[in-house]
């Protein structure tokens, strides 16, 4: 089965390997205080961003022209190539990122056991 590896950014040591081929990432924008969600899948040796949702607009919230509004969310399908890794910053001004896998949702750092710091997500080899 495919797994998602979580590590401190730039570190080779994996803190957690979570069996999953799909996951949802969520967070609150540090300036606008808007909620973001992204649905990802692991494919072709990379992380593929399939859908993005944002509650509202503002600084750094630039949905593309083909975005639509659904139940108060701005929704679109980003056209970005598969990413070999994604680094998630840790801000003292916002709550931790949320990570949902197969219906299990927890704070990102709860998945890793790390107290704080940027986390790198990547497909496990």
Structure notes:
- The structure is a single chain.
- The chain is mainly β.
- Strand 1 and strand 2 form a beta hairpin.
- It is built from one helix and eleven strands.
- It has one helix spanning 108-112; strands at residues 3-8, 14-19, 22-28, 35-43, 46-54, 68-70, 73-76, 86-88, 98-101, 104-107, 119-123.
- Helices cover 4% and strands 48% of the residues.
- The chain has one domain (3-123).
- The termini are close together.
Write a brief structural summary.
4% of the residues lie in helices and 48% in strands. The chain has 125 residues and is mainly β. The N and C termini lie close together (11 Å).
* Alpha-carbon distance between the two ends: 11 Å
Radius of gyration of CA atoms, rounded to a whole number: 14 Å
- Content of β-strand: over 45%
Question: How many domain modules?
Answer: 1
The number of helical segments is 1
Helix amount: under 10%
Question: Sheet bearing the most strands, described?
Answer: 7 strands, antiparallel
pLDDT < 50 runs, ≥5 residues: none
Output the helix-strand order.
EEEEEEEEEEHE
Structural class of the secondary elements? mainly beta
Number of strands: 11
Strand order of the largest sheet: 6-7-5-4-3-9-10
* Coarse shape: globular
Average residue pLDDT: 88
């Amino acid at each position: 089965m495919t797994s998602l590896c979580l590590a401190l950014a730039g570190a080779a040591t994996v803190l957690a390997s979570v069996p999953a081929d799909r996951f949802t990432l969520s967070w609150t924008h540090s300036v606008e205080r808007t909620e973001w969600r992204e649905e990802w899948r692991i494919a072709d040796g990379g992380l593929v961003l399939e859908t993005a949702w944002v509650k509202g607009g503002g600084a750094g919230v630039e949905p593309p022209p083909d975005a639509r509004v659904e139940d108060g969310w701005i929704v679109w399908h980003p056209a970005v190539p598969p990413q070999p890794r994604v680094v998630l910053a840790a801000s003292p001004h916002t709550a931790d990122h949320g990570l949902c896998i197969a219906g299990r949702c927890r704070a990102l750092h709860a998945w890793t056991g790390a107290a704080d710091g940027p986390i790198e997500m990547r497909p496990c080899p």
